[in-house]
Structure formats: C-alpha cells, structure tokens
Amino acid sequence: MSLHDHEISTIKQSLENRVVALPDGTALPVIGQGTWYMGENPQAKNKEIKALQLGIELGMKLIDTAEMYGNGDSERLVGEAIKERRDQVFLVSKVYPHHAGLDSIESACENSLKRLGTDHLDLYLLHWRGRVPLAETIEGMERLRKDGKIARWGVSNFDTEDMKELWDTANGKKCATNQVLYHLGSRGIDYDLLPWHQEHNMPAMAYSPLAQGGSLRRQLLSDPVILEVAEKHNAQPLQIALAWTIRSNNVIAIPKAVQEEHVIANAQAAAIQLTTEDLNSLDEVFPKPTSKMPLDII
Ligand code: NAP
User: What residue's CA is closest to ligand 1, atom 27?
Assistant: First the structure.
C-alpha cells in the first residue's frame, strides 16, 4: 500500500490538528506509536523499522519503548529507526521499578540512552510502582532532568490513590503523565482516574488501546454497534476503538503496529470525530463504570 503525497499531508494535518498539551505546554498529537515485542525477531526488524519511520512521517511522532521490552531489543530497534530523525521524534522510555532508586536510575537511563543512540529522552516513565519510595524516584528523575538526560518524567500503571500520593510528594506535581491500560473493553479508569487527570490538567497515555489480543480484541472487531459506527464513518472497527480512546482530548493513545496498513489506519483514526450519538451507542454495549474498579494492567 503506497500513499500519495496529498494523502500523507492530509493524515499529517489531522494529527497536527488533534493535539494534547502536557502540563509544561508541550503539544503532542493524540496518537503515538508503541513498540512492545519489536526488535525481538531479527527477521522482522526491517519491517518494524519501516513501520516506525512511516508512523513518524505520518505525524505519530511519540514513540514509546522501555528497558524491559525484549531486554533492550526494542530500544535498540527504535534507535535504528530514529537515526537521522531524532529531532522529529518525542521519545519515551521506561525504567524498571527495581532500577528506580538513586543508586541505579542514572545508569538505567544511561543504558537506555546508549541503546537508543541519543543523548536525551523526551519523557522517562517509572514503568510501575515497586518498593522504592516515590520520593526517591522523584529525586532521581529530577536529577536526570537537571543533567539534561531527560526533558521530563512521568509514571505508568498508577491508580488514583497512587497519583494522589505522588501529587502530595515533594516535586510530585512535576509529573507529566501516567501511562495506563485503556480501551473500550477496559474502561475502569473512566470512573475516577481520568477525572483526576482532567482536574489536574495532566493527560493520561492509553496503552494497549486496541486490546492487543484475546477475547476483548475479538469483541472490538465484531461487535455490531462498533461495526455500525464504523460503517457510518467509513472506517474500520479498530479505528473506531482508537478514536474512542482519544475522544476527550486529554488522552494520548499509543497503538503498536508493524503492518503498514495498520500504521496508516491508526494515523487516520485521528481524523474520526465520534458524535454524542456514537458515544451513547458505544456506552450501551461497553458501559461506563458505576463504581471503583481496580486498575487493569498487563
Ligand atoms: P495494542 O496497540 O492494543 O495492539 C497491538 C496489536 O494490534 C498488534 O498485534 C498489531 O498488529 C495490531 N494492530 C495495530 N493496529 C491495528 C489496526 N489498525 N488494525 C488491526 N490490528 C492492528 O497493544 P500493545 O502493544 O499492548 O499496546 C501498545 C503499546 O503500549 C505497547 O507496544 C507499549 O509501547 C505500550 N504498553 C505499555 C505498557 C505499560 O505497562 N506501560 C503495557 C503494555 C503496552 P501488527 O503489529 O502486526 O501491525
């Protein structure tokens, strides 16, 4: 599938028009790119690199990786994909909780930077909460920020109580975002976490926005209401699922895609504006939570 120049610029434009502001004012397109499992299969490497580069060309400039993914293989692959394009990319990586203490966060970050072939990250996230006290991780993050190794930091897999605790910790208000699982089939955070984010002017980042695999994915692909909304927008069911995650303009979704047609479909989803009627029909099949749900994690 090859795109004409005018198609590329239309997609790019729609992503430029749909941005979310981080607390420091940095504007990011609502759809970025995930990289979990990339870099692990040598035979897939070229295709994965091309997919990420196409995504960047289309305007999905945020690339999310982690030291955990493939034991650094994902970061190495991203490094290859962004060589000579570093300035076009908003680069996100994550530190393991057991590397998030003052004795190891700096070397963990240095190792990520080396694998990524860059001198700084745009965003560094604590992958999930471990045993290291939040105050210590924040201090480590702030030191990295002052040294210019990261431009900003955030967290991942934090539930509302964790965010409240973070907020009340010294320098905790410097957190840029919280990356959490969110898709139509898993919308527990609509109850309290997303409202917390809204109230504190901090966007959330939605991981696995396409439900990755399994039965929920099958449901997103075959549910009659999704199919009906998709037909109305002349779109694919998963594009509707993606458009749903970004509907509030306070969430950045980071789907992972290696197939070229998936990369294009995901970028195009930024142009889909779901109507109140669409959202109400989707709510009927995938209801809003009416009580606190434990945070979903994979
Ligand atoms: P996902 O993005 O929900 O789903 C990825 C799967 O969907 C891949 O199999 C991909 O296939 C397929 N796909 C992508 N676009 C599609 C389209 N338009 N139509 C049909 N299929 C499509 O799952 P994910 O990788 O779990 O989540 C995304 C990213 O979030 C990860 O890669 C990672 O960067 C991040 N993440 C973070 C955490 C955390 O704890 N912070 C946890 C999980 C994920 P192809 O690749 O073959 O195109």
Answer: 208
> Is 17 among the domain residues?
yes
Chunked mean pLDDT (size 10), the chain, 298 residues: 90 97 98 98 98 98 98 98 97 98 98 98 98 98 98 98 98 98 96 98 98 88 96 98 97 98 98 98 97 94
Is the pTM value of this prediction over 0.85? yes
Q: Is residue 272 part of a domain?
A: no
The boundaries of the domain holding residue 165 are 5-213+246-262
Residue nearest to atom 37 of ligand 1 (CA): 207
Q: Within a domain: residue 145? A: yes
Q: What strands lie across the sheet with 204-207, from one edge to the other?
A: 62-64, 90-95, 123-126, 153-156, 178-181, 204-207, 251-253
Ligand 1 center–CA 103 separation, angstroms:
32
Query: Which residue, by CA, sits nearest to atom 13 of ligand 1?
Result: 257
- Check which CATH number belongs to the domain holding 120 and give it: 3.20.20.100
Cα-to-centroid distance, 254 and ligand 1 (Å):
7
Give the bridge partners for 93, in sequence order. 124
Catalytic site positions:
69
